[in-house]
Amino acid sequence: MTRLDGEWLLTGAAGQIGGILRTGLRPVVPGLRLLDIKPLTAESPNERVYSLDLQDLPGLTEAMAGVQGVIHLAGIADEADFRDLTEVNIVGTYHVFEAARRASVARVIFASSNHVTGYYPTTVPVVPDMPVRPDGFYGVSKVAGEAVARLYADKFGLEVACLRIGSCRPRPTEPRHRHTWLSPRDATAAFVAAMSTPDLTYATFYGVSANQLGWWDREAGRAIGYHPSDRAEDHLGGATWEPATDEVQGGVLATAAYTLDRQRPIRTSAIGPNERNR
Ligand code: NAI
């Protein structure tokens, strides 16, 4: 079953990758349901829009009725306060998978991130079944999302792919992108491969373009039919760059300040010191 013969629902459709996939998938599937907390407008007869928060499990379940598959993009796409990430990226992802189960959706593609393994040094080639090493709370939230995804594949038989996206940008703009860039065209190709690969049970692969440099395995992507075509070096000129060997793959997200600067102050409880120490 290729799963391209029915409607698909995109969460986070108003976001950057949502916009790319909305255009790229229009000719690929018979119908698209576009869901986001931000307002959206249908732009073609095969689009339907849904203004919904990931916290609304009954709403998500209703929106998914009759769809063949779901691409789950919605969430906080950067480091943030741990409690916000928990609510939106972990509880929200649980709601998406649970709604998919309740609505008997066949396949879910989860937009995970390279930051689930961002603490590996730049000298270490990483394959998807290595232990996770998140580089911040955002990465932790994506690790939890992948765990939810795996549970729904194992326990409830959903067909699931986790796509660990690199740096999806119109063009590579910084040296790290020599290793991590994912072009819009290749992003569409990666999702279409995950949507259409036959006999999927559970798969994890890195979404990265055909850059000459790279830290991440490409075999798992090839195995499900993902064949990227763009190369970061074609856009970055002749400048060469190699990270220091003591750097980690996550780049600036892996620094302590990047995480700590984004945490809200912890409220102190009203109880007195004696009670607290009990
Ligand atoms: P984005 O920030 O542009 O889009 C996220 C969308 O999710 C937004 O439209 C936002 O309104 C929506 N959203 C947030 N909270 C919501 C809620 N509670 N209910 C409903 N909708 C909500 O992010 P982008 O770049 O499009 O990324 C999409 C996904 O891919 C994210 O999950 C991100 O973590 C992941 N990813 C993206 C990478 C990139 O290079 N852009 C790299 C790695 C992973």
Structural overview:
The structure is a single chain. This protein is α/β, with parallel strands linked by helices. The protein has a single domain, classed as 3-Layer(aba) Sandwich (Rossmann fold). The protein has helices at 16-25, 57-63, 82-102, 137-156, 177-180, 184-196, 219-223, 256-260, 273-276; strands at residues 8-11, 32-36, 47-51, 69-72, 107-113, 159-165, 167-168, 181-182, 202-207. The chain has a seven-stranded parallel β-sheet with strand order 3-2-1-4-5-6-9, with helices on both faces. A two-stranded parallel sheet has the order 7-8. The protein starts with 7 loop residues before the first strand and ends with a helix. Bound molecules: 1,4-dihydronicotinamide adenine dinucleotide. 1,4-dihydronicotinamide adenine dinucleotide is lined by residues 12, 14-18, 36-38, 53-54, 73-75, 77, 88, 92, 111, 113, 165, 167-168.
Question: Which descriptors apply to this entry?
Answer:
alpha/beta, two-stranded parallel sheet, about 15% strand, binds 1,4-dihydronicotinamide adenine dinucleotide
Structure, briefly:
The protein is of the alpha/beta class. It has 9 helices and 9 strands.
Helix and strand arrangement:
Layout: E1 8-11, H1 16-25, E2 32-36, E3 47-51, H2 57-63, E4 69-72, H3 82-102, E5 107-113, H4 137-156, E6 159-165, E7 167-168, H5 177-180, E8 181-182, H6 184-196, E9 202-207, H7 219-223, H8 256-260, H9 273-276
Parallel strand pairs: 1-2, 1-4, 2-3, 4-5, 5-6, 6-9, 7-8
Helix pairs in contact: 1-6, 2-3, 3-4
